[in-house]
Protein backbone atom coordinates (compact mmCIF):
# COMPACT_ATOMS: atom_id res chain seq x y z
CA UNK A 1 0.00 0.00 0.00
CA UNK A 2 1.11 3.56 -0.74
CA UNK A 3 -0.09 6.65 1.15
CA UNK A 4 0.05 10.23 -0.03
CA UNK A 5 0.37 12.57 2.97
CA UNK A 6 -0.36 16.25 2.41
CA UNK A 7 1.42 18.55 4.85
CA UNK A 8 4.69 18.26 6.75
CA UNK A 9 3.78 20.14 9.90
CA UNK A 10 3.41 17.95 12.97
CA UNK A 11 0.88 15.28 12.02
CA UNK A 12 2.31 14.64 8.55
CA UNK A 13 5.77 13.34 9.51
CA UNK A 14 4.32 11.39 12.43
CA UNK A 15 1.70 9.59 10.33
CA UNK A 16 4.36 8.87 7.69
CA UNK A 17 6.56 7.32 10.37
CA UNK A 18 3.68 5.28 11.76
CA UNK A 19 2.69 4.09 8.29
CA UNK A 20 6.22 2.94 7.57
CA UNK A 21 6.09 0.93 10.80
CA UNK A 22 3.03 -0.98 9.56
CA UNK A 23 4.44 -1.63 6.08
CA UNK A 24 2.82 1.21 4.14
CA UNK A 25 4.96 3.32 1.81
CA UNK A 26 4.47 6.96 2.78
CA UNK A 27 5.33 10.09 0.78
CA UNK A 28 4.76 13.49 2.37
CA UNK A 29 4.03 16.41 0.05
CA UNK A 30 4.66 19.85 1.59
CA UNK A 31 3.79 23.20 -0.02
CA UNK A 32 6.67 25.10 1.62
CA UNK A 33 10.14 24.92 0.08
CA UNK A 34 11.65 23.52 3.29
CA UNK A 35 10.94 22.56 6.89
CA UNK A 36 9.89 26.15 7.82
CA UNK A 37 11.81 25.97 11.09
CA UNK A 38 11.15 29.63 11.89
CA UNK A 39 7.39 29.22 11.63
CA UNK A 40 5.26 29.98 14.68
CA UNK A 41 6.03 30.29 18.37
CA UNK A 42 6.02 27.49 20.95
CA UNK A 43 3.58 24.80 22.05
CA UNK A 44 3.26 22.11 24.69
CA UNK A 45 3.28 18.35 24.27
CA UNK A 46 1.30 16.61 27.00
CA UNK A 47 1.85 13.08 28.38
CA UNK A 48 -0.71 11.58 25.99
CA UNK A 49 1.05 13.01 22.94
CA UNK A 50 4.50 12.08 24.23
CA UNK A 51 3.32 8.51 24.88
CA UNK A 52 2.14 8.26 21.27
CA UNK A 53 5.53 9.53 20.08
CA UNK A 54 7.24 6.93 22.25
CA UNK A 55 5.46 4.11 20.44
CA UNK A 56 7.22 5.29 17.25
CA UNK A 57 10.66 5.83 18.89
CA UNK A 58 10.22 9.58 18.43
CA UNK A 59 10.16 10.53 22.10
CA UNK A 60 13.92 10.96 22.64
CA UNK A 61 14.58 13.36 19.73
CA UNK A 62 11.57 15.47 20.64
CA UNK A 63 12.49 15.70 24.31
CA UNK A 64 16.06 16.62 23.40
CA UNK A 65 14.73 19.55 21.35
CA UNK A 66 12.37 20.86 24.05
CA UNK A 67 12.82 24.22 25.75
CA UNK A 68 11.83 23.02 29.23
CA UNK A 69 9.35 20.81 31.11
CA UNK A 70 6.01 22.50 31.89
CA UNK A 71 4.24 20.18 34.31
CA UNK A 72 2.46 22.83 36.38
CA UNK A 73 0.39 25.90 35.57
CA UNK A 74 0.20 28.75 38.05
CA UNK A 75 -2.70 31.15 37.47
CA UNK A 76 -2.62 34.79 38.58
CA UNK A 77 -4.71 37.88 38.07
CA UNK A 78 -3.33 41.11 36.64
CA UNK A 79 -2.09 42.38 40.00
CA UNK A 80 -0.05 39.22 40.62
CA UNK A 81 -2.42 37.51 43.09
CA UNK A 82 -2.44 33.72 42.72
CA UNK A 83 -5.77 32.29 41.57
CA UNK A 84 -4.79 28.63 41.49
CA UNK A 85 -2.22 25.96 40.64
CA UNK A 86 -2.82 22.91 38.47
CA UNK A 87 -0.39 20.00 38.33
CA UNK A 88 -0.76 17.61 35.40
CA UNK A 89 0.63 14.72 37.45
CA UNK A 90 3.34 13.93 34.94
CA UNK A 91 6.15 14.66 37.42
CA UNK A 92 5.25 11.30 38.95
CA UNK A 93 5.95 9.51 35.67
CA UNK A 94 9.45 8.06 35.33
CA UNK A 95 9.36 7.22 31.65
CA UNK A 96 9.96 10.59 30.01
CA UNK A 97 6.31 11.60 29.66
CA UNK A 98 6.53 14.87 31.58
CA UNK A 99 4.86 17.71 29.68
CA UNK A 100 7.35 19.78 27.67
CA UNK A 101 7.34 23.09 25.83
CA UNK A 102 9.00 23.16 22.42
CA UNK A 103 9.30 25.64 19.57
CA UNK A 104 6.86 24.71 16.82
CA UNK A 105 9.40 25.11 14.03
CA UNK A 106 11.98 23.04 15.88
CA UNK A 107 9.42 20.30 16.48
CA UNK A 108 8.52 20.20 12.79
CA UNK A 109 12.16 19.90 11.79
CA UNK A 110 12.91 17.15 14.31
CA UNK A 111 9.86 15.14 13.26
CA UNK A 112 10.69 15.52 9.56
CA UNK A 113 14.26 14.34 10.15
CA UNK A 114 13.05 11.37 12.17
CA UNK A 115 10.48 10.43 9.55
CA UNK A 116 13.13 10.43 6.81
CA UNK A 117 15.45 8.38 9.03
CA UNK A 118 12.74 5.75 9.30
CA UNK A 119 12.23 5.58 5.52
CA UNK A 120 9.51 8.13 4.78
CA UNK A 121 9.96 10.51 1.87
CA UNK A 122 9.25 14.24 2.18
CA UNK A 123 8.95 16.29 -0.99
CA UNK A 124 8.95 20.07 -0.57
CA UNK A 125 7.51 22.68 -2.90
CA UNK A 126 4.51 20.45 -3.65
CA UNK A 127 1.35 22.54 -3.24
CA UNK A 128 -1.83 20.50 -3.64
CA UNK A 129 -4.42 21.98 -6.02
CA UNK A 130 -6.75 19.02 -6.49
CA UNK A 131 -7.22 15.28 -6.33
CA UNK A 132 -9.31 12.61 -8.00
CA UNK A 133 -10.48 9.66 -5.93
CA UNK A 134 -11.80 6.33 -7.19
CA UNK A 135 -12.58 3.00 -5.57
CA UNK A 136 -9.01 1.92 -6.29
CA UNK A 137 -6.98 4.91 -5.17
CA UNK A 138 -6.36 8.66 -5.25
CA UNK A 139 -4.42 10.83 -7.69
CA UNK A 140 -3.14 14.13 -6.30
CA UNK A 141 -2.48 17.16 -8.52
CA UNK A 142 0.10 19.81 -7.62
CA UNK A 143 0.63 23.44 -8.58
CA UNK A 144 3.73 22.61 -10.61
CA UNK A 145 1.65 20.39 -12.91
CA UNK A 146 2.89 17.10 -11.47
CA UNK A 147 0.72 14.31 -10.08
CA UNK A 148 1.12 11.43 -7.65
CA UNK A 149 -0.97 8.32 -7.14
CA UNK A 150 -1.57 6.38 -3.96
CA UNK A 151 -3.95 3.91 -2.36
CA UNK A 152 -5.00 6.52 0.24
CA UNK A 153 -4.58 10.27 0.68
CA UNK A 154 -4.23 11.80 4.14
CA UNK A 155 -4.78 15.51 4.71
CA UNK A 156 -2.45 16.65 7.50
CA UNK A 157 -2.47 20.16 6.07
CA UNK A 158 -3.68 22.24 8.96
CA UNK A 159 -6.44 24.62 9.90
CA UNK A 160 -7.15 25.87 6.37
CA UNK A 161 -6.76 22.42 4.82
CA UNK A 162 -6.98 22.28 1.01
CA UNK A 163 -7.73 18.55 1.32
CA UNK A 164 -10.76 19.30 3.51
CA UNK A 165 -12.00 21.98 1.11
CA UNK A 166 -11.68 19.69 -1.91
CA UNK A 167 -13.10 16.64 -0.13
CA UNK A 168 -16.17 18.47 1.16
CA UNK A 169 -16.73 21.99 -0.23
CA UNK A 170 -19.74 22.38 2.09
CA UNK A 171 -17.74 21.61 5.26
CA UNK A 172 -17.96 24.25 8.01
CA UNK A 173 -15.18 26.78 7.96
CA UNK A 174 -12.96 27.24 11.02
CA UNK A 175 -14.69 29.43 13.61
CA UNK A 176 -13.00 32.52 15.02
CA UNK A 177 -12.79 32.30 18.81
CA UNK A 178 -12.62 36.08 19.34
CA UNK A 179 -8.90 36.10 20.17
CA UNK A 180 -5.67 37.07 18.48
CA UNK A 181 -2.46 35.34 19.56
CA UNK A 182 1.22 36.27 19.45
CA UNK A 183 4.36 35.20 21.25
CA UNK A 184 8.08 35.68 21.62
CA UNK A 185 10.98 35.59 24.05
CA UNK A 186 12.87 38.11 26.14
CA UNK A 187 16.50 38.09 27.35
CA UNK A 188 17.24 37.59 31.06
CA UNK A 189 15.61 40.38 33.07
CA UNK A 190 15.43 41.50 36.72
CA UNK A 191 11.92 40.09 37.11
CA UNK A 192 10.94 37.10 39.27
CA UNK A 193 11.55 33.83 37.45
CA UNK A 194 8.71 31.36 37.21
CA UNK A 195 8.99 28.36 39.58
CA UNK A 196 10.75 25.30 38.17
CA UNK A 197 8.67 23.36 35.62
CA UNK A 198 5.89 25.95 35.93
CA UNK A 199 4.14 27.98 33.26
CA UNK A 200 2.59 31.12 34.75
CA UNK A 201 -0.65 32.29 33.16
CA UNK A 202 -2.14 35.68 33.94
CA UNK A 203 -5.78 36.67 33.56
CA UNK A 204 -5.01 40.37 33.23
CA UNK A 205 -7.45 43.26 32.99
CA UNK A 206 -7.79 43.36 29.20
CA UNK A 207 -5.73 40.40 27.89
CA UNK A 208 -4.14 37.07 28.82
CA UNK A 209 -0.41 36.58 29.33
CA UNK A 210 1.51 33.30 29.68
CA UNK A 211 5.23 32.92 30.34
CA UNK A 212 7.94 30.58 31.61
CA UNK A 213 11.60 31.12 32.43
CA UNK A 214 14.12 28.86 30.69
CA UNK A 215 17.33 27.56 32.27
CA UNK A 216 19.32 30.26 30.44
CA UNK A 217 17.19 32.98 32.02
CA UNK A 218 15.23 33.84 28.89
CA UNK A 219 11.48 34.29 29.23
CA UNK A 220 9.27 32.66 26.63
CA UNK A 221 5.83 34.27 26.51
CA UNK A 222 2.55 34.48 24.65
CA UNK A 223 -0.42 36.84 24.62
CA UNK A 224 -4.08 36.22 23.79
CA UNK A 225 -6.26 39.29 23.47
CA UNK A 226 -9.86 39.91 22.38
CA UNK A 227 -10.21 41.55 18.99
CA UNK A 228 -12.69 41.61 16.12
CA UNK A 229 -11.78 39.08 13.44
CA UNK A 230 -9.15 40.20 10.94
CA UNK A 231 -7.87 38.35 7.91
CA UNK A 232 -4.15 38.12 7.22
CA UNK A 233 -4.17 41.16 4.96
CA UNK A 234 -5.89 43.30 7.60
CA UNK A 235 -3.45 42.13 10.29
CA UNK A 236 -0.52 42.98 8.00
CA UNK A 237 -1.81 46.53 7.50
CA UNK A 238 -0.35 47.31 10.92
CA UNK A 239 3.36 46.76 11.27
CA UNK A 240 4.85 44.86 14.20
CA UNK A 241 5.67 48.07 16.10
CA UNK A 242 2.04 49.21 15.93
CA UNK A 243 0.88 45.84 17.29
CA UNK A 244 3.54 46.08 19.98
CA UNK A 245 2.16 49.42 21.16
CA UNK A 246 -1.36 48.02 21.12
CA UNK A 247 -0.37 45.03 23.26
CA UNK A 248 1.62 47.14 25.73
CA UNK A 249 -1.43 49.37 26.21
CA UNK A 250 -3.56 46.32 27.04
CA UNK A 251 -1.31 45.53 30.02
CA UNK A 252 -0.70 49.12 31.17
CA UNK A 253 -2.78 48.63 34.36
CA UNK A 254 -1.39 45.21 35.28
CA UNK A 255 1.69 43.94 37.11
CA UNK A 256 4.69 45.85 35.65
CA UNK A 257 6.70 42.65 35.07
CA UNK A 258 4.45 41.90 32.09
CA UNK A 259 5.24 45.09 30.21
CA UNK A 260 8.89 44.80 31.25
CA UNK A 261 9.08 41.40 29.53
CA UNK A 262 7.23 42.65 26.47
CA UNK A 263 9.34 45.79 26.06
CA UNK A 264 12.55 43.75 26.17
CA UNK A 265 11.39 41.34 23.45
CA UNK A 266 12.26 41.66 19.74
CA UNK A 267 9.55 43.49 17.86
CA UNK A 268 9.18 40.66 15.32
CA UNK A 269 7.28 38.68 17.95
CA UNK A 270 4.41 41.16 17.77
CA UNK A 271 2.72 39.80 14.66
CA UNK A 272 -0.60 38.27 15.72
CA UNK A 273 -2.60 35.49 14.17
CA UNK A 274 -6.25 34.67 14.71
CA UNK A 275 -7.23 31.79 17.01
CA UNK A 276 -9.70 29.44 15.33
CA UNK A 277 -11.24 26.08 16.07
CA UNK A 278 -13.48 23.52 14.39
CA UNK A 279 -16.11 22.18 16.79
CA UNK A 280 -17.24 19.36 14.50
CA UNK A 281 -17.10 18.34 10.87
CA UNK A 282 -19.82 16.21 9.28
CA UNK A 283 -17.11 13.81 8.16
CA UNK A 284 -13.36 13.38 8.35
CA UNK A 285 -13.19 10.81 5.57
CA UNK A 286 -14.49 10.20 2.09
CA UNK A 287 -13.65 6.86 0.52
CA UNK A 288 -9.86 6.61 0.54
CA UNK A 289 -9.29 10.19 1.72
CA UNK A 290 -8.97 11.16 5.41
CA UNK A 291 -8.13 14.20 7.54
CA UNK A 292 -6.06 14.33 10.71
CA UNK A 293 -4.93 16.94 13.21
CA UNK A 294 -6.14 20.52 12.70
CA UNK A 295 -7.53 19.63 9.29
CA UNK A 296 -10.12 17.44 11.04
CA UNK A 297 -10.57 19.07 14.44
CA UNK A 298 -8.72 22.32 15.01
CA UNK A 299 -8.56 22.99 18.74
CA UNK A 300 -7.84 26.27 20.51
CA UNK A 301 -4.32 26.59 21.98
CA UNK A 302 -6.11 27.11 25.32
CA UNK A 303 -6.53 23.33 25.50
CA UNK A 304 -2.78 22.65 25.25
CA UNK A 305 -3.66 19.59 23.16
CA UNK A 306 -3.39 20.50 19.47
CA UNK A 307 -0.07 18.81 18.76
CA UNK A 308 -0.76 15.86 21.04
CA UNK A 309 -4.09 15.13 19.33
CA UNK A 310 -2.44 15.18 15.90
CA UNK A 311 0.12 12.63 17.11
CA UNK A 312 -2.62 10.40 18.56
CA UNK A 313 -4.52 10.63 15.25
CA UNK A 314 -1.44 9.60 13.29
CA UNK A 315 -0.72 6.49 15.33
CA UNK A 316 -4.32 5.25 15.37
CA UNK A 317 -4.82 5.91 11.65
CA UNK A 318 -1.80 3.78 10.82
CA UNK A 319 -3.03 0.99 13.11
CA UNK A 320 -6.42 1.04 11.39
CA UNK A 321 -4.84 0.72 7.94
CA UNK A 322 -2.81 -2.21 9.25
CA UNK A 323 -5.70 -4.09 10.89
CA UNK A 324 -8.73 -3.32 8.69
CA UNK A 325 -8.40 -4.91 5.27
CA UNK A 326 -10.39 -2.42 3.19
CA UNK A 327 -8.70 1.03 3.16
CA UNK A 328 -11.96 3.00 3.07
CA UNK A 329 -13.35 0.99 5.99
CA UNK A 330 -10.07 1.48 7.86
CA UNK A 331 -10.35 5.25 7.53
CA UNK A 332 -13.97 5.21 8.69
CA UNK A 333 -12.90 3.14 11.69
CA UNK A 334 -10.24 5.71 12.53
CA UNK A 335 -12.82 8.51 12.47
CA UNK A 336 -15.25 6.54 14.60
CA UNK A 337 -12.63 5.79 17.26
CA UNK A 338 -11.30 9.36 17.45
CA UNK A 339 -14.28 11.68 17.04
CA UNK A 340 -15.76 11.59 20.56
CA UNK A 341 -12.48 12.29 22.34
CA UNK A 342 -11.29 15.13 20.15
CA UNK A 343 -14.64 16.92 20.01
CA UNK A 344 -14.78 16.90 23.81
CA UNK A 345 -11.32 18.48 23.93
CA UNK A 346 -12.24 21.09 21.30
CA UNK A 347 -15.21 22.07 23.47
CA UNK A 348 -12.95 22.28 26.53
CA UNK A 349 -10.51 24.52 24.65
CA UNK A 350 -13.35 26.83 23.60
CA UNK A 351 -14.61 26.99 27.21
CA UNK A 352 -11.15 27.94 28.52
CA UNK A 353 -10.71 30.53 25.80
CA UNK A 354 -14.01 32.10 26.75
CA UNK A 355 -12.53 33.18 30.08
CA UNK A 356 -9.99 35.24 28.15
CA UNK A 357 -12.73 37.28 26.48
CA UNK A 358 -13.88 38.81 29.78
CA UNK A 359 -12.83 42.48 29.94
CA UNK A 360 -15.59 44.38 31.76
CA UNK A 361 -14.73 45.48 35.29
CA UNK A 362 -17.57 43.52 36.83
CA UNK A 363 -16.73 40.49 34.73
CA UNK A 364 -13.06 40.62 35.71
CA UNK A 365 -13.97 40.98 39.40
CA UNK A 366 -16.35 38.03 39.21
CA UNK A 367 -13.74 35.94 37.38
CA UNK A 368 -11.08 36.70 39.99
CA UNK A 369 -13.49 35.67 42.76
CA UNK A 370 -14.68 32.43 41.16
CA UNK A 371 -11.58 31.02 39.46
CA UNK A 372 -9.87 29.97 42.73
CA UNK A 373 -12.89 27.79 43.49
CA UNK A 374 -12.93 26.44 39.93
CA UNK A 375 -9.26 25.46 40.09
CA UNK A 376 -9.71 23.76 43.48
CA UNK A 377 -12.63 21.74 42.13
CA UNK A 378 -10.62 20.72 39.05
CA UNK A 379 -7.74 19.57 41.27
CA UNK A 380 -10.11 17.62 43.57
CA UNK A 381 -11.57 15.82 40.56
CA UNK A 382 -8.22 14.67 39.23
CA UNK A 383 -7.34 17.71 37.15
CA UNK A 384 -7.36 17.02 33.44
CA UNK A 385 -6.29 13.39 33.73
CA UNK A 386 -9.06 12.45 31.28
CA UNK A 387 -6.97 14.19 28.63
CA UNK A 388 -3.46 13.34 29.81
CA UNK A 389 -3.95 9.67 30.77
CA UNK A 390 -5.23 8.57 27.36
CA UNK A 391 -2.86 6.25 25.51
CA UNK A 392 -2.63 5.32 21.83
CA UNK A 393 -0.10 2.57 21.12
CA UNK A 394 0.73 1.28 17.65
CA UNK A 395 1.10 -2.22 19.12
CA UNK A 396 -2.57 -2.32 20.16
CA UNK A 397 -4.75 -4.15 17.65
CA UNK A 398 -7.76 -2.39 16.13
CA UNK A 399 -10.83 -4.63 16.28
CA UNK A 400 -13.66 -2.21 15.61
CA UNK A 401 -14.83 -1.60 12.04
CA UNK A 402 -17.46 0.73 10.66
CA UNK A 403 -19.85 -0.39 7.95
CA UNK A 404 -21.37 1.74 5.27
Q: What features would you describe in this structure?
A:
The structure is a single chain. With 404 residues, the protein is of the alpha/beta class. The chain is 36% helix and 24% strand. It is built from 13 helices and 19 strands. The chain has helices spanning 11-21, 47-54, 59-65, 104-117, 162-167, 232-236, 240-250, 256-263, 294-297, 306-323, 327-355, 361-380, 385-388; strands at residues 2-6, 25-30, 42-45, 68-69, 72-77, 82-87, 100-103, 121-124, 128-133, 138-142, 147-150, 152-155, 175-186, 198-203, 208-213, 219-226, 273-277, 285-286, 289-291. The strands form four sheets. A seven-stranded mixed beta sheet has the order 6-5-14-15-16-13-17. A six-stranded mixed beta sheet has the order 8-2-1-12-19-18. α1 (11-21) runs parallel beside α4 (104-117), α2 runs parallel beside α10 and α10 (306-323) runs antiparallel to α11 (327-355). The longest helix has 29 residues, at 327-355.
